[in-house]
Sequence to fold (307 residues):
Amino acid sequence: MGRYVLRRLLQMVPVFVGATLLIFLMVNVMGDPVAGLCGERQCDAATAAQLKREYGLDQSLARQYLTYMGNVLTGDFGTAFNGQRVTELMSTAFPVTVRLTIVAVCFEIVIGITLGVVTGLRRGRPVDTTVLLGTLVVVSVPTFVTGLLLQLLLGVEWGWIKPSVSTAAPFDELIVPGLVLASVSLAYVTRLTRTSIAENRRSDHVRTAVAKGLPRRRVIVRHLLRNSLIPVVTFIGTDIGALMGGAIVTERIFNIHGVGYQLYQGVLRQNTQTVVGFVTVLVLVFLAANLLVDLLYAVLDPRIRYA
Fold:
């Protein structure tokens, strides 16, 4: 196991370098970031040259990237154009988005897997048809429509929740935003679990367990569910990074100042340091989540061994 983890960590290095290089190049061709620092007026040549020299934008892209990566290794993600350190923005934004992601993943695991198991064991029955239609509706409706509708009904009309989340963003205020963020993924988890349960239900090892007279609960939990969760765990693991980076719409609707909000502001103001810094951390989150998923395979299926 240790050798496998070490090999995977070494494989992550070129992936991380390639991903960050691609992001760095894409962000730096969005436009001239210095142009947005002078407001509506265009910067004069002397001011533009001074700003580019101050932020290292007068160097070649290759030189800028090498400098940036060298700083990242020391924990320095640069300085935003407003003079604030990017790490300071991260220290306030990431905890909020992590809490939001935890709430969303809990909805996916608890509701999505439960509905998937119920419908997989009762395939073709009314409950199965109802859940399939419900998930189809959820997938078809855009997230911003779901978010605005729940905000209007629960927050404005009925007053059950606050229409917008406070700056502290405690867990109790993130329940509805977390449900909105997880809605589409929850529907996919339900469908994926249902399909996997229905397929593994006909497998030989499940039939053997039933023929031995084992209790139904033990057959479902130990023999059926564990093997069926492998594709589900893969989806949820890769979805963690997507939830953290794709929460822009949800955070805008509920006024949550998290990663999505900072990325939106960075793109809007062409603040390349902020965008590249945040996306770099998200790349690390994706890589760590994929490694964790691979390790969980051996827990779910004893037949899987890592050398």
Notes: The two ends are 6 Å apart (CA to CA). Residues 86-121 form the longest helix (36 residues). The chain is about 75% helix and 0% strand. The CA atoms of residues 36 and 245 lie 24 Å apart.
